[in-house]
Here is the input.
Amino acid sequence: MGHPTLIIMAAGMGSRYGGLKQLDPVGPDGEILMDYSV
Here is the structure.
């Protein structure tokens, strides 16, 4: 397993980002940010 990576993203609608940040795949198997939320 590789080293863990910390991703910090600001909350909001994501109009400049181009979509919902919480639904973009971030994990090695395409997990979304919501999958890592507690």
